Structure formats: C-alpha cells, structure tokens
Amino acid sequence: MQTLKRPIGVFDSGIGGLSVVKEIQRVLPGEGLVYFGDTAHLPYGTKSKETIVRFSREIVRFLLKFRVKAIVVACHTASSFSLTALRKEFDLPIIGVVRPGAEEALRMTHSGRIGILGTRSTIQSGSYLREIKRLNPRAKVFSQSCPLFVPLVEEGHLEDDIATRVAEEYLRPFKRLHVDTVVLGCTHYPLLKRVIGKALGKGVCLIDSSHETAEQVKRLLEKDHLISLNGHASQRCRFYVSDEPSRFSKVGGAFLRDRIRAVQKVSL
Predict the structure, then answer these.
(1) Active site (catalytic) residues
(2) How do residues 157-197 score in pLDDT, each as one tens digit?
C-alpha cells in the first residue's frame, strides 16, 4: 500500500474523540480513518499517568496493524500524559490535541486571560498551562476541572436543566476572573458548548481544539506529501472499541451527527 493511501489512526478514551474524527473528515475528505475508543477503561481523567501511558501504548500498537500513516491522540488526558513517551517509542507522526488548542487560544484572546476546562488529570498535569506559558509567558491561565461533564455527555444531558446547573457551578470562578477565552480541554465538551457559552455569558470565545487538531494534521500531511485525494472519509472510517459497541454506536452518532453502522469490539 502506498503511504499516502494509508489511513489515519485516531484514539480516545471513549466516544469524545469522534469530534476530532468529524473535523478531520471535513478538512481531509479523501482520507480513510481507523478509530479506537477505549470504552472499557473510560474515563481516563481519573487514572494515573502510568496507567494512561500503558493504555496509550497498547492502542498505538493496535492501530499500527492497519499501517496507519499518522496517529491522532484525540484524548486530552492521554495527550497530556503519554504524547512524549509515544513519540519516543514509535516512528511515525503522532499529533496531540493540547498544542493546537493552546495556539488557537492565544490567537483569539484580547486580554491574555485564558480559562482551561478539563478532566482532573488534564488539569493536574498542567499541560495547557505549560504550553500556553511557553508560547506567551505573559498570558494569565486559569484552570477548572469539570468531572461531571463527561458523564453528562455520555448520558445525553446536553442542554437540559441538569447540564445548565452543573455548568453554572463550574464556570462561576471564570466569570469572576474575567477570562475572555476558554479552552474546551476535553473532546466531550464541545457537545456542551451551548450551556457552557450561556453560563460564561457574551463576549467569551470558546476554543474547540478538535478543529485546530484537524488543521494541524492537514498541515503535517501536506508537508510530507501524504494527503490522499481518493474517496470520501465519512464512507471509509472503521470503528473499534474495547467494550459496549452498541452503546458506542448509539451515543457516537451525536458526535458525528450521522449513524455509526458498524463497530467492532476488540481486546488489546
């Protein structure tokens, strides 16, 4: 198989990474994709760094069976903890979601006051703080862990009173701190964009790193002359999970806004 015709591998702790898949399909419609959701171990946000790195290595080895030409770590927690280890161990391009989100936040902020929403592990890792400070030491970065957001999305509470009350509670500190840009530091969070935006109020820019990550993948493939122009990605995406394929298919449709017809369960 010619390298440019090989698929792109994408993985996440569960379903949220489908938001990245959707954006890759939009900006790179000729690419095939292989997606792995580690639904047996969801959520990653409550696990140790060592465990997350181990899971990530196993998933990359699985994706390499499909001769992928690049891998996207679509999980913010896995990007925060395992990206460096993966890049040292595996000889292919591996893209995370933290740096693209940090770069876009700095492009969009006017005041330099940036808020980060994420899982406990992502926030505790300090990955966004380090990346933003590396790019602009003068930026002011404020972080807030949101452990209930992922279960809300998984259970379909996207715009109801429950989601609204939880969002208002989590985001109250950001309103006091007058942030003007907020990074949605988990691939589940874009589905809560409306309630998050409402809780923050007008004038706050929400950064969805899924789009920026897809654009980075495109730039990388263009640079290495690896873009495929054949076919349509939405018709050539294979889905694998470590548990509950029927649930993945049902809930995942909300991310892609399309029916997921075939999901295969595999053991790593």
Answers:
(1) 75, 186
(2) 999 999 999 999 999 999 999 999 999 999 889 889 999 99
